[in-house]
UniProtKB/TrEMBL annotation:
Stretches for region Disordered: 1-49, 326-345
Biased composition (Polar residues): 32-49
Protein name per its UniProtKB record: Uncharacterized protein
């Protein structure tokens, strides 16, 4: 009897959830009713709690089924919504040329690109704020740019350098486009490592002069063309000429370490140079004579040097093999410039 009641409860609950009507069972006969009634005894009242437990379990199962059904319905609704959107997009009107109207996509892409470019512009402004960039001009031909970059980064081989320099000759009336040589009298006073360093600077100077010669010839050919091209060439010549002067000044400064302090004036950048680094020998002799005369005048004014005083840059320093206590009087000691190095006229 209890099992039948549970089954009846299941059918009624399913009907309530699904909305379906339970099929009607055939009406029991009077004999069946009497039999069922007679089968129920007072001692069977203990089956009531078991029936309640069955009913609770059935209700829990039905609740789970109901929840799963709701979730499934929501998924079906979402799929229907996506399908309707897809069908609506497929049914959009077409243009006259038979293509779909994709203005919406173009506008969206344009807006996205505008946002990205704006962000890049902001980042570039921040970069320019914290880092100083070199100001550059417009690009040149890629092949020419490659030649320039390769030459200034890697240079050329020694064989090609010698071959190029041999084929470049200065104009006859450009006497300044030659390497400056060290005056013979001063060259003898330089130490071997100083002479080696000077030879390296002289080689660099020779390459700069060869480039200057070609630039001069190029400007000569552009003399009748537009003034802008000539201005570029003449500016390059001026810069190359200044670089040549800077190298000559650097070479003089290099020699100072082997010369007596009082003769450092000869290395002054204000003194002109010719094809000889210190000017003509006559000019050098005159400058040396003036320096010696000024030193004699200074000694007379001071009353001569103190006993034990050395004219070197420090105690015991004597770069030219001078003996005694320095230049004490006329004709004493051997100065750095000898008469045979700079003959008198």
């Amino acid at each position: 009897m209890a099992d039948k009641a549970v089954q009846n409860l299941k059918h009624s609950t399913v009907s309530a959830v699904t909305g379906m009507k339970e099929p009607k069972a055939p009406a029991p006969s009077e004999n069946a009713i009497a039999s069922n009634t007679s089968s129920v005894k007072p001692g069977n009242s203990r089956q009531g709690p078991a029936t309640n437990a069955y009913m609770t379990e059935v209700l829990d199962i039905l609740r789970v089924l109901n929840s799963n059904a709701n979730v499934q319905n929501e998924r079906i609704e979402k799929q229907e919504h996506l399908f309707n959107e897809f069908m609506a997009a497929c049914n959009e009107p077409m243009d006259d040329d038979g293509t779909y109207d994709d203005c919406y996509d173009v506008e969206t892409e344009h807006e996205e690109s505008s946002i990205e470019s704006e962000q890049k512009s902001i980042f570039k402004q921040l970069s320019d704020k914290f880092y100083q960039h070199e100001q550059v001009d417009v690009d040149i031909h890629p092949d020419l740019a490659s030649l320039v970059n390769n030459s200034f980064r890697n240079g050329i081989s020694e064989h090609n350098l010698d071959d190029i320099c041999k084929r470049i000759h200065r104009p006859e009336n450009c006497d300044s486009l030659v390497k400056t040589r060290v005056n013979q009298g001063i060259w003898r006073l330089l130490k071997s490592y100083t002479q080696a360093e000077d030879a390296q600077l002289s080689a660099i100077q020779g390459v700069v002069l060869k480039a200057s010669i070609n630039m001069v010839k190029l400007v000569e050919k552009l003399g009748t063309s537009e003034s802008e091209h000539v201005e570029l060439g003449t500016t390059a010549i001026a810069l190359l000429g200044h670089a040549n002067k800077m190298m000559n000044t650097k070479r003089k400064e290099l020699h100072n370490q082997d010369l007596d302090y009082k003769y450092h004036y000869l290395a002054s950048a204000s003194l002109p140079y010719t094809d000889l680094l210190y000017g003509n020998d006559t000019d050098v002799n005159n400058n040396v004579r003036e320096i010696n005369n000024m030193n004699r005048i200074g000694k007379v004014g001071r009353g001569g040097p103190m006993r034990g005083f050395s004219w070197g840059r420090r105690a015991g320093f004597n770069p030219y093999g001078l003996r005694g206590r320095g230049f004490r009087s006329r004709g004493r000691g051997n100065g750095p410039f000898r008469t045979e190095a700079f003959p008198k006229n």
